[in-house]
Design goal:
This protein has 78 residues and is mostly helical. It is 65% helix and 5% strand.
């Protein structure tokens, strides 16, 4: 699943370069420029990708280190 998340990140980077919509004057729902609607979709996709990255690709070592440091609140060696 980690590779799927990385693939989504690369796809979002490529899709964010939307040179093909700059000259398009189409309105979505009659008031929203298509370029703004496209960037709204990219933003939602980025949020979903970040959620998937945290859920499935976050390094487990970071979680273990935090639990160990919270068990010793003074920060010194016990």
């Amino acid at each position: 699943m980690k590779y799927v998340v990385w693939g989504l990140v690369v796809l979002l980077i490529v899709l964010h370069q939307d040179n093909w919509l700059w000259d398009n004057d189409t309105l979505v729902f009659g008031f929203l420029p298509i370029t703004l609607a496209f960037h709204m979709g990219i933003s939602l996709a980025a949020g979903i990708t970040w959620f998937l990255a945290v859920k499935f690709a976050w390094p487990s070592e970071l979680h273990i280190d935090e639990e160990q440091s919270s068990s010793n609140p003074e920060g010194g060696d016990a």
